[in-house]
Write a structure and sequence with these properties.
Keywords: Coiled coil. It holds the Pfam family DUF1641. It comes from Neobacillus rhizophilus. This is DUF1641 domain-containing protein. There is one protein chain. The chain is mainly α. Among the domains are: 46 residues, no CATH class; 25 residues; 34 residues. It has eight helices and no strands. It is elongated and about 115 Å long. It starts with 14 loop residues before the first helix and ends with a helix.
């Protein structure tokens, strides 16, 4: 009958054996990832040649000063105004009907084309011409839209 195991002997590697094992593991990983490592080395070489690598190293070394400058720039009034305005505009855009916005943008694009054509013709517009075009349904619709838009803007400005 076999004797029970009472002592477990742990194999301890010497420092030299640990280094050899680590080196062997590293060489195996290098061999498996040869193409990626060559691409990475080529990229680093190009960054070094162009001076970008030196700039990045300097940037990392001066990270505290760079962070102070970045925070200082981000807290300037024009930047905070930009952020606040973008947030307000984003909030306003969420209340608009996408179909109406699409129609309006298409109308603006079409209007810009017509305006460009009008500039090319270089014709003069007189008072009688203005009165005549009021009968045009497209112009009448645009004027009505503009007047209602102005009314809505004015109502919004009461606060």
């Amino acid at each position: 009958m076999a004797q029970p195991i009472k002592i477990i002997k742990k194999v301890e590697l010497t420092e030299e054996q640990q280094k050899a094992q680590s080196l062997e593991s590293l060489l195996s990983e290098v061999a498996q990832n040869k193409d990626s490592l060559l691409d990475t080395l080529q990229l680093l070489q190009e960054l070094h040649k162009s001076g970008i690598l030196d700039a990045m190293n300097s940037l990392v070394k001066a990270k505290e000063q760079v962070a102070k400058i970045a925070v200082g720039q981000m807290t300037r009034e024009p930047v905070t105004n930009l952020i606040n305005n973008a947030m307000a505009a984003g909030g306003a855009l969420t209340t608009l009907d996408p179909e109406m916005t699409k129609k309006l943008m298409n109308g603006v694009a079409n209007g810009l084309e017509k305006a460009e054509q009008g500039l090319q013709s270089n014709s003069k517009v007189g008072i009688l011409d203005l009165l005549k075009v009021l009968n045009d349904p497209d112009i009448n619709r645009a004027i009505g839209f503009g007047l209602n838009l102005l009314k809505g803007v004015g109502e919004g400005l009461k606060d």
